Amino acid sequence: MERTAELEVAQWSARRRADGARGFVVTLGVCVLAAAVLATWLPLQVSIITVFLFAGPHNWFEFRYFLMRLPARFGKSRKFFVTAFAGIGFLTVSYVSLPFVYQNVFWSNETWLVVLASWNTLLLAWLVVLIRLRAKQKRKADWTWTTPVLLAIAALNWLGPEFFSLALVYVHPLVALWFLDRQLKRTRPAWVGAYRRCLCALPLILAFMIWQLSQTPTLNDDNGLFWRITQQSGAQLLPQVSSHMLVSVHLFLEMLHYGVWIVALPLIGTGFWRFKTSQKKPARTVLLILGLVGVAILWFGFATDYTNTRDLYFTIAIAHVLAEAPFLLKTL
Amino acid sequence: MKTLASLACLLFLVILSTQTAFADIAKPKPPEQQSKMLMSRRLEIVPDQKFDQARLQISQSDFQELRAALNGETGSNTTIAASIAQSPTRTIVAGALLFLSVSFAGVWLARRSSATRARKAIAAGVVVVAMLGAAAIITRGNAGPPPGWLSWKDLSKNFSQGKATSGRMVIEIVPDNPDSPGIKLLLPTKPKDGPAE
């Protein structure tokens, strides 16, 4: 009798898990398709609205997630985190200073390419060091292969630094999907299979978008803001490619990125909201409140002068992009 | 018979109205010719007392690239190839890094010599795919270049002082227009109000 009851409970919870996974997949599918339609239909307008509404909040959610994943005491990970934070600090400062150097120093186009390639190489070198430090903590994993691969990427970067950077602009939003995968594995392992099957549809959607938009005329970017958006998507580097296609694809990926951080990760489970119990609560709260103030300032800036705030935001935002590297490595 | 006559009248009316409707349709507009952006370069405006006429100087390689892009050749490939050929420094660094990459890969494969050939092939594929994902971490983010007008804001002051001013420039081929002057240089200015630059 007791055994039958246990079996029924097990079946009930399995059914519930399956229903949950189905609901998750349906919601994910609807959101992805909606993002693809919006990005294809009105790329410039939707891009402005999306960045205005979600850029700041997504940074806050990311910051919160990183705080949650930060150990109360670094212990054996001290070297890893010191390297990570030093790298984030140095690379961010050097990156933010590049536009100022650009304004005040006259360098030839070739010199700028060398500077850009050097910055990218430093980034790769920092990543190699982080991977090696992380690999030491995971004795069973063999990550030696990452060194030659990163060196090969660095070599390609020197051949076309601008194209390398542009490629990364498109790949960066996908990192959020990797974070979601890791978080699902931790909190909802039953959903991982369904999620990964959903991910298989992503290349198909992208291929369909590219096929549909490849012959579309260039977007009218005589407005300064529109020009900035098309340049960000690589219209200047790829003049033969339809800027409509470039902006749409980039916007679609960005919308996925924002969706994962603002909607998916907080909603999939309690794990996202749980801090390490030994973390100092007041310091954490102060940091989060400061983050909220930052979001409010960003919104105020967008409302006052959208174009310049957008430029400023995307330059400073390099810090959050860099921060993703060590925290993703810690989840692997 | 009466019905047939009515139907014939109705058919005649429909045909007539169709003709009227077609007559009202405006002539199809000729397809609008669009401008085409071909390449991006740094432009320097230099006041010089030696010349009595304005000069537009363009390097031979840039000119060849411009011609190739205009003729519909694969612009980006041409750009990369030309860029690599013109830059011995970057080529040397790239070569050195590639050499290191192959060396490290060789050591790694040698250490894993116990693995079968098929496993090695799978591992190579996985390496490529995995690194595409890992490369995402090192992204430069979404930042773009600074606003174009910043480069040109001191143009008039520099020009009057005989100093050079430089900034990024896009070479754009526009459709022929008899009312327009031969070559036009458009420089971005600081927006007075609103987001437009």
SSE layout and pairing:
The complex is a heterodimer of chains A (332) and B (197).
Chain A: H1 2-41, H2 43-69, H3 78-104, H4 109-137, H5 146-159, H6 161-171, H7 175-187, H8 192-213, H9 224-232, H10 243-267, H11 281-304, H12 306-316, H13 318-331
Helix pairs in contact in A: 1-2, 1-8, 1-10, 2-10, 2-11, 2-13, 3-4, 3-13, 4-5, 4-13, 5-6, 7-10, 8-10, 11-12
Chain B: H1 2-24, E1 36-45, H2 60-70, H3 75-86, H4 88-111, H5 117-137, H6 149-152, H7 155-160, E2 165-173
Antiparallel strand pairs in B: 1-2
Helix pairs in contact in B: 2-3
Uncertain stretches of 5 or more adjacent residues of chain B: 18-22, 74-78, 136-144
- Major sheet attributes of chain A: none
Question: Which overall shape of chain A is indicated by the principal axes computed on the Cα atoms?
Answer: globular
Strand content of chain A: under 5%
Strand order of the largest sheet of chain B: 1-2
Average pLDDT of chain B, rounded to a whole number, is 65
Total of helices of chain A: 13
Most extensive chain interface and residues per partner: A-B, 76 and 66 residues
Helix content of chain B: 40-55%
What do these coordinates show?
The complex is a heterodimer of chains A (332) and B (197). Chain A is mainly alpha-helical. Chain A has helices spanning 2-41, 43-69, 78-104, 109-137, 146-159, 161-171, 175-187, 192-213, 224-232, 243-267, 281-304, 306-316, 318-331. The relative contact order of chain A is 0.16. Chain B has 197 residues and is mainly alpha-helical. In chain B, helix 2 (60-70) packs antiparallel against helix 3. In chain B, strands 1-2 form a two-stranded antiparallel ribbon. Chains A and B meet through helix 3, helix 4, helix 5, helix 6 and helix 9 of A and strand 1, helix 3, helix 4, helix 5 and helix 6 of B.
In short:
Chain A is about 80% helix and about 0% strand. By secondary structure, chain A is mainly alpha-helical.
Primary descriptors:
heterodimer, A: 332 residues, mainly alpha, B: mainly alpha, 10% strand
